[in-house]
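haha ok so turns out i had the wrong file open the whole time. this is the CORRECT one, sorry everyone. sequence first:
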Amino acid sequence: MIAIIDSGGANIASVRFALERLGVDSVLTADPAVISSAERVILPGVGAAPVAMAQLDRAGLVECIRGLTQPVLGICLGMQLLFERSQEGDTPLLGLVGGTCGAFDPGMGLTVPHMGWNRLVPQGEGRHPLLAGVEDGAHVYFVHSYAAPVSADTVASCNYGVDFTALVARGNFMGAQFHPERSGPVGARILGNFLALPAGGKG
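then structure:
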C-alpha cells in the first residue's frame, strides 16, 4: 500500500493519477498509523514551508515522518521539508537531510519562480536506483522559488543560475524538487524506480 501524506498540497491529485497510470493504488491520509504501516510513503507539497510544517505539526505527523523506515519520497516542497531549515520564514524542517533551502536571487537576472523544463545532471559515484533507465540530461518539470544546495546526498542536480539539488537521497528518505507526476515518461520512470525499491530503501 502506498500512503500519500495529506499535506494540503495542490499536486496531490496529479500524484495519485500518476500512480494510477503505473497501476498502483494509493491512499491519501493524515493518520500516523496508516502512514507508518504503508509499504511506501509519498510526501507531496506545494506552497510555503512555514505553512506546510505547521500543518504537519498540527496533524501529529512530524515525529511520525522522522521515524519512518520504509522508502519515503518527498516531491517539490515535500522534498525541501526533508532538509534541516528553510530561509522561507527561517523555518525549521524535518531535519532528515543536511542543509538549508534558500531562495533564488532575482538579482542574478533570474525569473522567480523557476518554472518549466530543465535538465538532470547525475551526481556522486555510481548511479542511484532512482535514476535507473534515465538518460543523463533528461528533462523534468520544475515550479519552485526555493532550492536545496548540492551536497553529498545529491543524486542529481540542475542549474538555474546556480547548481541546486534536483534529486536527493539519504537512507530511506528521497526527494524530487521537480514534479515527476508532470514530467512525462522520465517522471513516470523515476516514480516507477521509487516503487521498485526494496522495503529497506537504499543507504
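The chain has six helices and 14 strands.
again sry for the mixup
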